[in-house]
Predict the 3D structure of the following.
Amino acid sequence: GNSVTQMEGPVTLSEEAFLTINCTYTATGYPSLFWYVQYPGEGLQLLLKATKADDKGSNKGFEATYRKETTSFHLEKGSVQVSDSAVYFCALVYNQGGKLIFGQGTELSVKP
Amino acid sequence: DTAVSQTPKYLVTQMGNDKSIKCEQNLGHDTMYWYKQDSKKFLKIMFSYNNKELIINETVPNRFSPKSPDKAHLNLHINSLELGDSAVYFCASSPQHSNTEAFFGQGTRLTVV
C-alpha cells in the first residue's frame, strides 16, 4: 500500500543553520507530494507541493524536489529562523478518493 | 475570510455523551474530509465526501457519523464518547477528490473525561 516515512524528531537547530528533513514514500503510480506545516496550536498549512517527477516545490525559503528514482521528497532550507519552529509533515495523495497519507511528522525547534 | 472553519475549537465532555463538530468551507470545493490527529501528532483520514456523497470511510467505529447537508458543510457527530476518542479533529476540503492538496481548518481539540 501507499505510505510515507519521514525522519524522526525532534530536530533542534540554531538560528541560521541548514535544515534537511528526509521523506521517502511508497506508492503505486505517480502520486502528488506535499509538505505541510503545523505551528503550535494551529491547523495544517500547505508549505509546498510537487505533482510530477523532478518538480521542485518552493515556498518561504523551503524547497523539496520530487525524486522518482529514490522515491524521496526531502525538505530543505538554507537558513532557519526561530519562527520556523513547528511540526512538518510529508504527505502524498493518489487516486484514492483524494485522501492524504501523512508521514509521522517531524518536530523542528530553532533556538536563537 | 476563513477558508475552512470548524467549531468548536475546544470541546471537553464526559464519557458517554454525544457531541457534534461543525465544518464549513467557502472555497467552492467539491470534496471535504475529516482527519484525526492523535496524541503523537499522527494524522489519519476518517471520512471523505464528494458533493455530499460518501467516498471514503476508513474503518471508523460507527459511533462516528458524518453528515453533509450540502457540499460546503461536513459535520461530524460522535455518539457515546469514549476516552480514546480524545484527539484533535481536522476538517479539510479540496477542489476534487484526486491528486490535489487539501486545505485544513484550525482543528477541534476533543477531550473526553
About this structure: The interface with chain B takes residues 31-32, 34, 36, 38, 42-46, 49, 51, 87, 89, 93-100, 102, 104-105, 107 of chain A (CB under 8 Å). DSSP finds no helices and twelve strands in chain A. Chain A has a mean pLDDT of 94.
